[in-house]
């Protein structure tokens, strides 16, 4: 019996990571804002605006006859969820850990600070998955919105765009001087990202100069690719290449600039 139970346990190197994931999950759940903002706020906006604004359910010529509620607006709310986690939750956690010496102390233990970072990223990814699943299911069941027509492409785009924005979040966490300063810095980054992603103004309605900036921002191609996968349209190569470039650049800068204390 003991041999069976030992065999089914997680490998020794994995156990500390699983423990840290459990700890980070409990810490996140103790902070109502960390759950409410990225998970419930975008879902509430989707359901309230989609259910009360008539234009959201009218066919739009600029969208090929599709309704805003079918793909465009849910895609924007998916991006909103990811952006809130990336620019608010992650930078605050890592800046606070660095400020309080948590990462420095962990570097003197067998667990190591790398597992702390990995655990927080896994918990943040799980929170994003929950938010997106709630968005897709809620929009479909309550508002009759379409489900993504290319689910595997949609999942791949979500992972790539999330990774790019989370890398930016790690960079913000590396640059923020303190945990209290991190949310303000994150907000200053989040609102331009959402604007150029098309949340406040659709990209096709932007002036040419702003549309050009949007094309090379991390969120503009992310939103365009989400919408394309949702509607079953072809996904332009640039909407994959640009977020991938941001992922590599932000990760490299975060690693270079990150300090353990």
Tags for this model:
0% strand, globular, 261 residues
What does this structure look like?
By secondary structure, the protein is mostly helical. The chain has one domain. The termini are far apart. It is built from eleven helices and no strands. The N terminus is likely disordered. It is globular, with a radius of gyration of 20 Å.
Gist?
The protein has 261 residues and is mainly alpha-helical. The chain has one domain. It has eleven helices and no strands.
What are the SSEs and their pairings?
Layout lengths: L1 H7 L6 H15 L2 H21 L15 H32 L2 H5 L6 H31 L7 H25 L6 H16 L10 H8 L3 H13 L6 H20 L4
Describe the biggest sheet?
none
User: What separation lies between the terminal Cα atoms?
Assistant: 46 Å
* Secondary structure tally: strands: 0
Task: Work out the strand percent.
Answer: under 5%
> How large is the radius of gyration?
20 Å
Q: Indicate the structural class.
A: mainly alpha
Q: How would you describe the shape?
A: globular
Low-confidence regions:
1-8
What percentage of residues falls in helices of 4 or more residues?
Answer: over 70%
String of helices and strands: HHHHHHHHHHH
Look at the structure and give the mean pLDDT.
Answer: 85
Give the count of structural domains: 1
SS element count, helices: 11
